[in-house]
Amino acid sequence: MNNDIERVLYSQDDIKAACQRLGAQLTEDYAGKRPLVIGVLKGVIFFMTDLLREMDLMADLDFIDVSSYHGGTASTGEVTLEQDISTDIKDRDVIIVEDILDSGRTLAYLKDFLEARQPRSFKVCTLLDKPEGRVVEARADYVGFNVPNEFLVGYGLDYQEFYRNLPYVGILKPEVYANK
């Protein structure tokens, strides 16, 4: 897998430092509260786990599974709900945790979908923010890194379900996915 990476953008140490920074900020912002942290599957599993370890507060966890890439290298433009959360979020402080904010479609969908359930507050934490990829307005409240408009894999990010287990975030060589 490492041979398919053009270059590493963020090492394990970089990611750990970002998780520590974000975890400290969330701990401060949610002091005295018990937020519901909702991870967006599947890509978020590594980031959410490491982020939660850095948060010194009581929090409930849930997961939602939505898809807009459907195995490709770009969003299809259609977001589909694969699995809903199981927690009632009415009057709860909700933190959505994402691996990457790219086109904005998934986040816009989630925001509309979940805000209809009347949470007290709704914030978004993402490891990676790719502003150049936006096609709809979307914004994260907590960001680990702003990233270039490249196809990224590793640390949960995939191409056709592969590369998620790389311990870093890297740029996938275009020849890996070209003509596929």
UniProtKB/TrEMBL annotation:
Keywords: Cytoplasm, Glycosyltransferase, Magnesium, Metal-binding, Nucleotide-binding, Purine salvage, Transferase. The keyword Nucleotide-binding applies. GO terms for biological process: GMP salvage; guanine salvage; hypoxanthine metabolic process; IMP salvage; purine ribonucleoside salvage. InterPro entries: HGPRT, Hxn_phspho_trans, PRTase-like, PRTase_dom. Its EC number is 2.4.2.8. GO terms for molecular function: guanine phosphoribosyltransferase activity; hypoxanthine phosphoribosyltransferase activity; magnesium ion binding; nucleotide binding. It catalyses: IMP + diphosphate = hypoxanthine + 5-phospho-alpha-D-ribose 1-diphosphate; GMP + diphosphate = guanine + 5-phospho-alpha-D-ribose 1-diphosphate. Residues 12-160 form the Phosphoribosyltransferase domain. NCBIfam families: HGPRTase. Purine salvage pathway enzyme that catalyzes the transfer of the ribosyl-5-phosphate group from 5-phospho-alpha-D-ribose 1-diphosphate (PRPP) to the N9 position of the 6-oxopurines hypoxanthine and guanine to form the corresponding ribonucleotides IMP (inosine 5'-monophosphate) and GMP (guanosine 5'-monophosphate), with the release of PPi. Belongs to the purine/pyrimidine phosphoribosyltransferase family. This is Hypoxanthine phosphoribosyltransferase.
